[in-house]
Amino acid sequence: MKNKLKIERAILDLTQEELANKIGVSRQTISSIEKNRYIPSTVLSLRLSHLFGKSVNDFFELDEHEKTHT
Amino acid sequence: MNVESIKECERKSIDKLKKYQLPNRFKKVGWILFAIAFVGLFLTTKDTNPKLIAKYAMLIGLLLVSISKDKIEDEFIKSLRMHSFTFAFIFAVFIAITHPLFSYVANFVVTEKQALFTGIGDWMILWLLLSVQVFYFEYLKKMHR
Which residue, B42, B43, B36, is CA-closest to B58? Predict the structure, then answer.
């Protein structure tokens, strides 16, 4: 899964620490999501969506091979 | 009492079990207990009651560290914790299964006589489970810093 979390964070001019505090997670969590090492839960994704004022699909996107179930 | 209400009752008890974690301050308590017990282990010489108490106090200390929450216990930390429990479980089972074979071979090489297959022992299994979980969890957190 690809994500544009880093871009969205830059738009709001937030550090990883600040973003983490706003949505109630650790800085490690934000860093891991940005590096695609961790896929957040629906609740966390919706919290990010609320903060960015955008739909989840705007900053999370499935890879081509993930779009179809084989 | 119908089946649905029994199921609901069981679901509630399972949900209670899910909240097994202690507050973060117990982590410090656990490390202090572990350190005291570790020192105590070397102060006692033979297999006496104080040594046995020190050995089990070490396990209790590690258990407190293991089940205490982090300062920020979010979903990512929970996933790392789950990985560390899984790894520790598999590791401990693997060691418990292979240990008799290794000890047999080692005994055979040293004594050159027919050796016995000996088990690993309950304390060592618990020690392996807890220590591997605690240190692997810290390692995972460090890797994701």
Answer: B36
Question: How many domains are contained in chain A?
Answer: 1
Residues A1, A63: Cα–Cα separation, whole Å: 5
Domain assignment present for A62:
no
Q: Tens digit of pLDDT for each residue in B26-46?
A: 999 999 999 999 998 888 777
What count of CB pairs under 8 Å joins A to B?
A: 32
Q: Residue B52 and residue B40: Cα distance in Å, rounded?
A: 10
Is A45 within a domain? Answer: yes
Domain that holds residue A21: 2-53
Instruction: Kindly list the residues from chain A whose CB atom is less than 8 angstroms away from the CB atom of residue B81.
Output: none
Average pLDDT over residues B86-101: 92
User: Which chain A positions have a beta carbon within 8 Å of B75's beta carbon?
Assistant: 25, 29, 40-41, 43-44
